[in-house]
């Protein structure tokens, strides 16, 4: 069989499909137009010989892998700049290039410049004033500066109030003085901080006039733009090897009396005036926006990742033959074994369910964001609870599903060349970052307890939790007739009960 | 705090222990004598400066890691030879040096010479005649030859009848001719085969006088003893990077008309006479012995691995402080959080349960082996079913438990320096090798269906499944009084039902 021929077992399975696969593809991607845009983008990047790996990256040391990945990241950034100059980039371009599909195909273990595009630029957009956006965004889009986002510390992650990095305003010089006073205050994990970025948005506890004001974001220069050496007072480096995301270049950051100008604090939501007067945000919940956005984006991306894992397992199950079912017949494709079907099929189903869920919450997020812009906060708690809950559920279930897929490929799934080890490393990380799953579930529980009390006192509930009111009004389930509506009703009934 | 000081939170937890930890240690290890032998062995190996890592292995490329590991493996083998010369080695020595405790401490990602000691030598002992043992074992114990065990192929693993490697006897030269006729017949996975071993026990389908006789083991020389280059007809190399066991040096092997003398077939259980006459084994189940031994050894070792993982998680939970429970008090050790207790405590309990289970089945295996030597096969099916079942359950549960422990350490568990990535790689592999877990559970199910039928027809059952007879005789559970006996009875009742 020539190396580019399709395995005949696989070809036969494809021909047997009982549905129109092209139609399914359009649905998955959101229409024919999106499909064609995707193909065009993939051609632009995947056909570039400079972006191909000559040696599988598994054979590299961490240092070699970083150098290899940052070289490719620079090529990708150049192409992105060209697309942007031609007005051919949109949100789908960035979602694709830094997500689990095209992004992972280009740099398997994660792009060391990812946080520049998915956190540094969006945070300036979301939290900078118009003047600050003009000042920083041009440089950032052109990659004249390369940024990352430094919030989590060695000592504190999801529990934000525990962060120890301090920014004290010095009105005499109109500067903030930033410090990480203890070892546990060191920033820990920012992608690209290890060796790549020369700037960071540093989240710190703000003090002005000696009074504590809460968390605020500051743009801090980490490295000299010419020599790439750390600036005075900056202690920066790589945190070391990890299960996955091996080329994301996660770093640490210590700050010792690092001074930044007043204008380096992002001031869209809260302000410090030159004399040190603090102007609090009109609504502190506005800072939820970025967190919700990232969680919603993660939920969408997980369906893509799980689709990839279950496709690998399904293809393997079609081409691998093992253990006769009927001793008089040749060994069947392993997908003929019931035990194999029970492993692989539910993971395919989950990928599709998470896809529908992801699109639903993506649309809801866009609606709620629009309402927020107009000062309407009504659906914010619902949106927050739903994004917490689904981030936890989809990440935990996807990580478990990837392992089921991997184990369904026997020993071959254990090898790096199956791609499962990389996919698992990427997926299980989502259980921890952007809000640790246990905390996310506790937030969901807190919301549910609150709305349950509202329902008991007869208050109307938002659509997502309407089923609780329904249950309280009518505690009898009635007859079950196995229709789809009844199955949904049964889940709601059990959940409310 | 000096780097060798114990964290005060950890010290306080240790002092609060409500039981005698020394007594527990003796129990875990099987008595004070075993404890002292363990300490002595650890001192001999862990204090050797040549066996320490100057650079964490996570920073190495696969090639560097292999060279580093094989250098250490040679030092370990030399020390083992000295112990053996002084009569100071026993089964515990090898269990320790190639297991999840001392073995993993010395070569974290697996000893490339492990299969020489745990498969090559034991197979010659178990399946070689006395003459063959004399011929091969002296060389093997002295490491004048280095072996591995080649059974699994690219195309077939757990389903042994599907193996394709052929050994045809040529009576004219009194040699076997070995071939891997297809790409899927290539041996795949043998540890140390990549670049380390110069011999292998190759399991092949035996043909004499043109008649198929079943599987048989052959000693095959892979590489020249002086140049280490592959012998004529041998195609051998490394299969590539994997999730874990990264320095085990798993390899592939193709054979093209490789000739070995008649006496290279291990002939304790079955024989080929010079004219090609085949003498079948007296009892084909005797070949189960090695498989059962390995599974029992794995079950014992998994308790050790899980104890290690849960110890790391427990220590982290004692020293990490996060998120106040009472807002007026400082952040507590995270083990004070109920959610953290629910993650870590059950894994500690499982490690202890698997320890008791492992010792139980180890003793049972030794008894049954003694009975087998005397021709008594009565308990073989029970022993086989129990070792299959427990291999599957303990490996799947341990792998899941390691991940619970890892995730309970938040982002820090994701880093290689937590040691969780290595432990998970080692543990999840056990789900697949030495009998894929799904197949193991199907074997268990087959046994249970068989004994259930026996119980229904009134035949007496062996102790392990006696509870099925009890249930059939008395299908009423009766009152439940929550004693330990009643809890065991309840599990048995539910299982039988």
From TrEMBL, chains A, B:
GO MF entry, a single one: FAD binding
Main location: other
Gene Ontology cellular component terms for the protein in this record: peroxisome
Keyword Oxidoreductase: yes
Domain Acyl-CoA oxidase C-alpha1: 288-449
Cofactor(s) the protein requires to work: FAD
A single GO BP: fatty acid beta-oxidation using acyl-CoA oxidase
Domain of life: Eukaryota
InterPro entries: ACOX_C_alpha1, Acyl-CoA_ox_N, Acyl-CoA_Oxase/DH_mid-dom_sf, Acyl-CoA_oxidase, AcylCo_DH-like_C, AcylCoA_DH/ox_N_sf, AcylCoA_DH/oxidase_NM_dom_sf
Keyword Chaperone: no
The protein's annotated pathway: Lipid metabolism; peroxisomal fatty acid beta-oxidation
Signal peptide limits: none
Record-annotated Acyl-coenzyme A oxidase N-terminal domain positions: 20-145
The entry's keywords: FAD, Fatty acid metabolism, Flavoprotein, Lipid metabolism, Oxidoreductase, Peroxisome
Compartments where located: Peroxisome
Recorded family membership: Belongs to the acyl-CoA oxidase family.
This protein's name: Putative peroxisomal acyl-coenzyme A oxidase 1
Organism: Bactrocera latifrons
Phylogenetic placement of the source organism: Eukaryota, Metazoa, Ecdysozoa, Arthropoda, Hexapoda
Gene: CG5009_27
């Amino acid at each position: 069989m020539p190396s580019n021929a399709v395995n005949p077992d696989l070809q036969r399975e494809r021909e047997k499909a009982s549905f129109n696969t092209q139609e399914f593809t359009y649905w998955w991607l959101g229409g024919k137009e999106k499909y064609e845009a995707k193909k065009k983008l993939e051609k632009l990047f995947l056909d570039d010989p400079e972006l191909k790996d000559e040696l599988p990256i598994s054979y590299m040391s961490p240092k070699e892998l970083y150098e290899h990945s940052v070289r490719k990241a620079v090529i990708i950034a150049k192409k992105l700049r060209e697309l942007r100059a031609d007005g051919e980039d949109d949100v789908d371009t960035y979602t694709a290039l830094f997500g689990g599909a095209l992004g992972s195909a280009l740099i398997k273990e994660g792009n060391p410049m990812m946080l520049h595009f998915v956190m540094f630029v969006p945070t300036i957009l979301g939290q900078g004033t118009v003047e600050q956006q003009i000042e920083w965004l041009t440089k950032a889009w052109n990659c004249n500066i390369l940024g990352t986002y430094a919030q989590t510390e060695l000592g504190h992650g999801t529990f934000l109030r525990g962060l120890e990095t301090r920014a004290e305003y010095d009105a005499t010089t109109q500067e903030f003085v930033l410090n990480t006073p203890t070892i546990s205050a060191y920033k820990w994990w920012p992608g690209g901080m290890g060796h790549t970025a020369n700037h960071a948005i540093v989240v710190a506890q703000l003090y002005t006039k000696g009074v504590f004001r809460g968390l605020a974001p500051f743009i801090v220069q980490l490295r000299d733009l010419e020599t790439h050496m750390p600036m005075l007072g900056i202690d920066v480096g790589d945190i070391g090897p990890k299960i996955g995301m091996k080329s994301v270049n996660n770093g640490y950051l210590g700050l010792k009396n690092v001074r930044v100008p007043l204008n380096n604090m992002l001031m869209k939501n809260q302000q410090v005036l030159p004399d040190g007067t603090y102007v609090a945000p009109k609504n502190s919940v506005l800072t939820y926006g970025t967190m919700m956005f990232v969680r919603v984006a993660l939920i969408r991306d997980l369906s893509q990742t799980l689709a990839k894992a279950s496709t690998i397992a399904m293809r393997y199950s079609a081409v691998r033959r093992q253990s006769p079912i009927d001793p008089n017949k040749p060994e069947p494709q392993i997908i003929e074994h019931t035990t194999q079907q029970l492993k692989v099929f539910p993971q395919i189903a989950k990928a599709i369910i998470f896809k529908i869920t992801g699109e639903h919450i993506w649309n809801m997020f866009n609606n709620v964001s629009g309402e927020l812009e107009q000062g309407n906060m009504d659906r914010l708690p619902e949106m927050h609870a739903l994004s917490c809950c689904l981030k936890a559920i989809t990440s935990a279930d996807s990580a478990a599903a990837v392992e089921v897929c991997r184990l369904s490929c026997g020993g071959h799934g254990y090898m790096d060349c199956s791609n499962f080890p990389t996919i698992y490393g990427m997926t299980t990380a989502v259980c921890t970052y952007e809000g640790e799953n246990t905390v996310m579930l506790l937030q969901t529980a807190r919301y549910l307890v609150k709305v349950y009390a509202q329902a008991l006192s007869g208050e109307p509930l938002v659509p997502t939790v309407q089923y609780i009111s329904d249950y309280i009004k009518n505690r009898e389930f009635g007859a079950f007739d196995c229709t789809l509506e009844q199955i949904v009703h049964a889940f709601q009934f059990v959940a409310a009960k």
